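Quick one before lunch.
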Amino acid sequence: MKEVIRRRVGIEYGAPPLKAGKEELRRRNTLLLLALVQSDGPSSQADLARRSGLSPATVSGILQPLIESRILIEEGKSTSGLGRRASILAFNSRANLTAGISIDLEEVEVALVDLSGRVLDQTATRYPRYTEPNEVVTLAAEGLALLEKRNSLDRSSIAGAGVAIPGLINSATGVVQVASNLGWMNVQLRDLFEQRLGVSARVEHLGRAKARAEAIWGKGKNHRNFVCLEIGSGIGAGVVVHGRILRGAGGIGGEVGHMPIDPAGPTCACGFKGCWEVFCSGPAIRRNLARRLEGADDSRGALSPIATLGDLEAAYQQGNAIAVEVVEEAADYLVRGLVGVIWSFDPEFVLLTGPVVNQCPSLVEAAKRRMGAMQGNARSFDVPLILESHHAGTGVVAASAAIATRYLEELAFNGIPKQNHVLTA
Ligand SMILES: [Zn+2]
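Model of the zinc ion complex:
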């Protein structure tokens, strides 16, 4: 088996069995070619042969049925080269759609996302914090029904629902073990969604969902070792190691927000003291700000105890002393945890995502300055901190990525469905 195959589709499949049969080989090659067209965009057959390392005859034999069933569509002719101009093949991203559902503390977002991660339409519904899972699933189902109606679609055009949620999630079983910030514990969320929506669902930890979306559509393309760090109501990571998303024995690998940073720190929702996320998650930074504002009349400026992270950022930019202290302290803790992450996983880069990163860019800058100043250690900490992709970094797109990947796997491993819901773009 060629190395290139492991490199491109390794996120779902490890090294193939040493004695892969002919049929197994064909399936894996099909998956490789589909993944190449899906993530790298339209290509000619010759191009695909070159990039996959497969022979032109093998590529042609695999692609022909996919073209006939309009899973791959012709998108013009190549302009270079002599002789007959080759067809450029594109993935038919609307051969099916996915529902991307992102659950946060007080809001559920639902989107129709195509198989290339493009959002066709989306909606969001707010609810009070600690709303029951059943209720949130109902709100998401209503959101999806609204989107279908608005776009004259029915449920048969939805290949599945991807659900992204912060917390300890076992995506193999679909169980939310603990989502402490939502107040949920041991919830079989996948079953709730499947019963309510009537399509298959996949529940994933938000950080891991983002890592997958970045790997197929964003800044993680063609990289085999990186960490996607989500900083919002808590801190969680999607860790990509050797091209695969780390899950661990219990399916909760990457829950770095509960790394102990300071035993004298405040108690975390998980029960331990001084976890990383009690120092630099969104609520932690706002708590710290409110505490410092108490009895600090002179230096408050425009800041109030209910200031948002956006207000904090604006005050920092204006040189407000309290804002500077709060941001710099959060950056200290952010870097402390990042050092642990870098020692543990040795990533090529760390992608920073989530509301804290988006609303408070000065925190990222302060963290970068600290990392840059760390010289003379046993290892260098010149691991780039980069911001999430504009597109793949959104919760709904991240949620849908698992369904888009599974769609390709099903095509490759189960064959082309008899009833293919081809939509006109
Ligand atoms: Zn904790």
